[in-house]
Design goal:
This protein has four helices and two strands; from the N terminus they run ααββαα. The N terminus is likely disordered.
Amino acid sequence: MARQAKGFNENELKLVDSRLKRLSELPGSDMKRILSKVTEDMQKDVIAAAPYATGNLKNSVYIKSSEKTARVWVDTTKTDKRRSSSKFNYGRTVEHGRVGQYKTTPYFYDVINRALGTLVRMINDKIRDNKINN
């Protein structure tokens, strides 16, 4: 049985992007608030889903959102103070594994994919409400 690649479905990302573009074209869309709320929810969900060994993963989830972009990522090189950690991102290794040394415990992509579905629903609701009000 072939191992399925971890990552995002390109078609889903295109759908999210097109819906965000449509939302940004609406007057009073409040896109910054929506992106901020969704990224905060994603961060909480990723932290909750992260496997617990040392607690380093739970302390290494970062978010950044602006008017048109949102980013959620895991970077253990910022929280792990050991010298050897500067070139070894434990969060990536837990998600993707490392040949012969580390077992994978996927937690990041599943959580983010579920959150993208929530984001699309929020956008669709906002677009629908705008059409009703105008």
